[in-house]
Amino acid sequence: MLITKTYYDIPTKLDPNGRPIRIFVIAPNVPGYPNAKFPGVEIYQVTGPVERFAGQIASNGYVVACPSIYHEFEGPDPIPYDAEGTDRGNKYKIEKELAAFDEAFRATFDRRVLASFCWFATDIHSGSLGKGKNDDSLIRVRNGELTGKGELVMVFGKQVGSYSQREYDGLPYFSESQDTHVPREGRDLIRRTLEDANVATTFVEVQAQHAFIRDEASKGRWDAALTRSLFSLLLETFERTVGRDLGERVDDGRKIEHVC
Questions:
Q1: pLDDT for 66-80, tens place per residue?
Q2: Contact 118, 190 (CB under 8 A)
Q3: Which pTM value belongs to this model?
Q4: Is 2 strand, coil or helix?
Q5: Residue among 243, 249, 251, 242 nearest 113 (CA)
Q6: Which sequence spans correspond to the domains of the chain?
Q7: What distance separates the 2 farthest-apart alpha carbons in the chain?
Q8: 113-244 to CATH, choices 3.40.50.1820, 3.30.360.10, 3.30.43.10, 3.40.50.2000
Q9: 1-93 and 113-244 share one CATH topology?
Q10: Low-confidence stretches of the chain (pLDDT beneath 50)
């Protein structure tokens, strides 16, 4: 399926300076069908790898919106994948107002969002997103704000290597030490919180490093084969949840029968 690329500057109340947020839109193009409608998907930041990944999603029949997430601090150009760019991004993520992160993982709390597919979501386990490092995402999950809403898929890389013994909740455990973005105890915390709140979640851990889907400037972490495999899971999730208009979900109270 052919695709088109454009962008829109959208006013937002979240920028104290009144600057709009630029949203790049990559969408299917079906000549001869000007009134065709497609479900929409939103992903994070507009670097070269993200634009190419968005193009693959769009070519499967989805409108992909890619916001310039740090529009409060600089223009819509992507932040480079180098040491200086990494420092800028890490600085912005703790200066950005927490409510503004509702454009990312926290968009899952919006009832209009039917499904979310999150790649290696960082800082949720530590509650350190946003200005003041006072993220309440897991608190909101515990309060039931995701229960009975859309479906959530979370993918994390973990790298088996050297281990260190630590203590968590009074119990000893061994933690991987090669990928420290979301360590084992962090992933366990996220998983347990979602499951305890009865959120419809698929939680995937793979033998890979952080940012393994990035096909450019990956710092040696890109895994093309694994990315291709998980892309199939992404498409299955969206096709099943947003690719068809099934109407509002009705819980009939039926329990799944245990069958051997």
A1: 888 888 888 888 888
A2: no
A3: 0.82
A4: strand
A5: 242
A6: 1-93, 113-244
A7: 64
A8: 3.40.50.1820
A9: yes
A10: 162-164, 167-169, 173-178
